[in-house]
Amino acid sequence: MSYWFRNDNRLPQERLAAASYVIVGMITLLLLGFWKLQVIDSDKYGQMAERNRVRSIPIIAPRGRMLDRDGRVLVDNYPSFSVLLLRDDIAAVEKSLPAIADGLGLQLDDLKEQLANSSELPKFQPIVIKPEATPADVAFIESHRADIPLLEMLMVHRRRYLPGGFMAHASGYVGEVSEKQIEDSNGRLRPGDIAGKSGLEREYNDLLVGTDGMRRVIVNSVGKEVGRLSQQEAIPGKQIQLTIDYDLQEVAEEGLGDKKGAVVALNPQTGEVLAFASHPAPDPNDFAVRISKEEWQKLNEDPGKPLLNRVTQAQLAPGSVFKIIMATAMLESKVPPENFTAFCPGYGIFYGQMHRCWVYGKGSHGQVNLHEAIVKSCDVFFYNVGMRMGIDRIAKYAKMLGLGSKTGIDLPSEESGLVPSEDWVERVYHHKWYPGSTISVSIGQGSVMVTPLQVAYVIGGIASGGDFKEPHLMKDAPSVGDKRVELSDDTVEQVTQGMYGVINEPGGTGQSVRLQGIEFCGKSGTAQMMSYAAASRLGLGKGKNDGWFVGFAPRRNPEIVVAAVVEDTSEHGGTASGPLVRDIVKAYYEKKEKKSQGQSTAQAQKPGMQPVAQSARAGEAPKVATKREGPAKVAEVAEKKQQDPE
Amino acid sequence: MNEMTTTRDYDWWLLAIVAAICALGVVEIYSATHGSVLAGMHMKQIRWLIVGVVLMFVLSRIDYHVIMDQAPVLYIIGIVALIAVLAVGHTRFGAKRWIPILGEMFQVSELVKLVIIVVLARFFAEVRTDELSLQDLIKAGLLVGVPLVLILKQPDLGTALVLLPMLIVGAFLAGLRWKHAAVIILLGALMLPAGWHFLKPYQKDRVTSFLHPEEDAKGSGYQVLQSKIAVGSGGFWGKGFGKGSQNQLGYIPVRYSDFIMSAWAEEQGFKGVLLALGLYMALLLRLVQNAQRAKDRAGMFLVMGVTAALGFHVLVNVAMVIGAMPVTGIPLPLMSYGGSATLFVFLAIGLVMNVRLRRFVN
Question: Is residue A586 part of a domain?
């Protein structure tokens, strides 16, 4: 060994001592650092650790179901799993993305785009990459927990509506809450919550939504649940029973079929809505999960306006149905007097202009009184009545009977229709009322507009002797408005008698819908899109019409009133809508008969809830699954050929 | 010389402190891993400790003068090994640091740290003047610079940085002039921005997130934040053994190794930290005392090289745990789990023991 070290023992004791001080100083500084964290800021970090450890997971309360009046399920829920992607570890996400796309049957590019779109969100917030997981997806996620620990499933309740848009406009649909709804809810709603967007779903949202529960769980650093702290169960939403009768609703849906129009049936004694259909209807199941912008736009731009609830929102000229209001007004105001008659040569000249009766060119009605005018729907008679009454008296009675204002049905966005008057025309058009316009209004043309619901409500009210019950869809509606309009017994008698004659007397315009053994009364109406004169000038002959029919039964104290309208039809109201009304009335009586025979339909239908469930599962329209007798067989119709129903 | 040393001459106090620190480490490794896929890691650590103790005793028997005699050879072997690891080493966690020996993966740089301690001690022991000349300072700098650059290449910033305090402490004890010290500090400050460009992206991330932790709550800053949450939530008394949520639920990154102090602080609280840091202070002061009682300058430099390395490890690791320094990936000596790191510490202590055993020998 070379003695390079030469026993050199000059030790720099001072500098070694300095090193000791440095060590003590260093440890002291570190301890101060710990003191700051562990003693001074301990509470703050304690809370942060707790927030790390504990995750509050909402337990979504299922919405209340909707049942029909017999307890059959109309709107149900089903459990569904949303697939969540945890994005904490972005590198792992990027690596696993192709496998995830493959396993869940998603497009890799879509997935990437979704990920890019959500880059603004906090990383710990998972994103929903598939709103509805299939059993295969669930199996995929479970079997790859170890190698792809980025997927989670969240159980949610989704709404199941009867397929094919059955009752869609009454039930409405749900969707994610809008920003405005969140603002208005005072913190009760969170983004992503589901709320009713239209129809009953929206009207009774507060009843239908339950109270979400909360599960507090311990999660590890990769977000996996490793323990449970507490659980507050969700309180399911209230189940609501509707006044809708599934059997009648089915007849209504089937009757409308591909036609554009609406049908509504009420019990005028209670205001209960028995059937409520508007076609075309969207299938709310299509957007119960998530609707794409394109689909939504398509629905909005569809010329058939499937999103329009025609029962409460279609504002159409009532045509001859309005003659019932005219008749009531005439009898109540005595202008002209009850025994007034008019001569109908097939046309009339008022204020220098010729107005045709519908028989123009085919004959004439001759001398007609009120009863005959209703039965035969003589336009000239009512032209004369209208001219004598004047627009303001017409408006007064029309409004008194409920036109021009909302019926108050328990649905959002009801329209009020329009009853023209001198005031109105001055306010809106800034000119004086042309007396000639009164002539058109007298037969339900011109600017008068009504909704199908108003027609059923008003006719039901008149037929019930002036007792107007607010229409409602929920069986236990908290308060049902009740409006009493003083109508003399004679008025009611004459009007209902006229409507009875429409169907049951020779020469009546509604004979084709006669029902054996039922006191079925009604009135058809055919609202022209343009006047007879204009149509013939254009050489159109028969233009496009809105065909109305309103009917009730029995003649005294009616139990059911049905209004139907078919838009853009080349047929007349009696032909286009009459059978719809007739079939519902017939179904109503058949069911009533069965019940009185002791075979309660409700009981017979208890296992019969199955058609609802079955067809829902099969994804077919229930009307197919529970096909009833075709309309052709429904009524023992007096097969009398109608030359022209109006 | 050997025959004149007895077991009584070992520094039993030092060994007791080492044993106590190791015990804390094993306890916390157990707590951090027993419920996870890493269960049983504490037993592996005990195995490393046993190997370490054996190597320590073996090393303490070879006169440090004999070892230092071979400094040039050791230096060349170290450099070659570093080059070899860059050429054929195994890549783990994105860095080439490992070569397999006897079926275990070893970090060559750990061994190189030991070699540099020996080489620097030899170099400074041969300086005859009371004051360190600029020439010698530059030579020492070059001696450290070559392996430092090679380790940076792996890249392993943490280990590379450990070489600097060895150089600084050595130079200081060898009579570094205050003037030179000032110039070095100035140069260092000037080179800091330049050095930035040589950092790898992930290293830059770590520094950025250290300076602005709020900008990166889930990236590099996430680790430090979680560590701070663990430490802070432990409070004064701690959450109790096996009861730290940050630890048990895996929020603390590498809680059994680099961030073991965080896990310890969470479960044992400030009182536990006081114990652990007290033991480290006792260890370091005991090492300085051994240096003060060394028989010659060579022994003194050897012991202080070890002290500098261990002290720097403790400082950087613990400061990182409380968010006072950027994440560098330096383990906490004797507590962190790890084969190479544990063996390095025991071999280093073996060198100290070696000097201790020979303090009365002539």
Answer: yes
Do residue A230 and residue A266 come from a single domain? no
- Among B249, B254, B283, the strongest candidate for a mutation testing the A interface, having the largest count of A CBs within 10 A, is B249
Omega before residue A126 within 30° of 0, cis? no
Closest-CA distance, B130 to chain A, in angstroms, reads 9
Cβ B328 vs Cβ B320: under 8 Å: yes
Within a domain: B17: no
pLDDT of residue A51: 81
Question: Is residue A548 a part of any domain in this protein?
Answer: yes
Domain region containing A236: 56-241
Q: Which of B137, B225, B139 is nearest to B174 (CA)?
A: B137
Same domain, A205 and A336: no
The reply to whether A440 and A342 lie within a common domain is yes
Among A24, A37, A220, the residue with its CB nearest the CB of B249 is: A220
In this complex, do B297 and A52 lie within 8 Å of one another by their Cβ atoms? Answer: no
The values of phi and psi at residue A357, to 5°, are -90, 160
Residues in chain A with CB shorter than 8 Å from the CB of B250 are: 220-222
> Residue A128's beta-bridge partner residues?
A84
Indicate whether A388 pLDDT > 70: yes
Put simply, the answer to whether A26 touches B269 (Cβ < 8 Å) is no
Q: Which of B282, B292, B260, B242 is nearest to B19 (CA)?
A: B282
Of all helices (H) and strands (E), which one includes residue B34? none
- Within 200-259 of A, beta carbons closer than 8 Å to B belong to 218-222, 226
The distance from CA A620 to its chain's CA centroid, rounded to whole angstroms, is 20
Averaged confidence pLDDT in chain B: 87
Window A:279-338, CB contacts with B under 8 Å: none
> A338 and A229, same structural domain?
no
Angle at CA A270, nearest 5°, toward A67 and A489?
160
Q: Is residue A19 part of a domain?
A: no
Mean pLDDT to the nearest integer, A546-566: 95
pTM (two decimals): 0.66
CATH classification of the domain holding A133: 3.90.1310.10
* pLDDT at residue A385 in the model: 95
The token duo for B55 is 């190597």
**Chosen domain end from A241, A267, A298:** A241
B8 falls within a domain: no
The winner for highest mean pLDDT among A232-241, A525-534, B217-226, B264-273 is B264-273
> In this structure, are A380 and A232 located in the same domain?
no
Tell me, what's the pLDDT at A259? Answer: 92
Does one domain contain both A558 and A620? yes
Nearest CA in chain B to A17: B288
Mutate to test the interface with B, among A6, A13, A16, A39 (most CBs of B within 10 A): A16
**How many structural domains does chain A have?**
2
Q: Do A124 and B218 touch (CB under 8 A)?
A: yes
Q: Which residue of A has its CA nearest to B296?
A: A9
Q: What is the CATH number of the domain that holds A372?
A: 3.40.710.10
In DSSP notation, A475-522 reads: TT-S---EEE----HHHHHHHHHHHHHHHHSTT-TTGGG--TTS--EE
Do A273 and A201 lie in one domain? The reply is: no
- What is the ipTM metric for this complex? 0.93
Q: Could you list the residue range(s) of the whole structural domain that residue B175 is in?
A: 25-357
Query: Does residue B13 belong to any structural domain of this protein?
Result: no
How does DSSP classify residue A238? P
Model confidence at A469, pLDDT cuts 50, 70, 90, reads very high
Q: Assess if residue B6 is contained within a domain.
A: no
Give the pLDDT confidence score for residue B103 in this predicted structure. Answer: 67
Chain B nearest C-alpha distance from A12 (Å)? 6
Same domain, A228 and A367: no
How does pLDDT run across A306-323, given as a tens digit for each residue? 999 999 999 999 999 999
Q: What is the mean pLDDT of residues A242-263?
A: 94
pLDDT score of A536: 57
- Tell me the pLDDT tens digit for each residue of A116-143: 877 766 666 677 788 778 888 888 887 8
Longest dimension (CA), chain B: 62
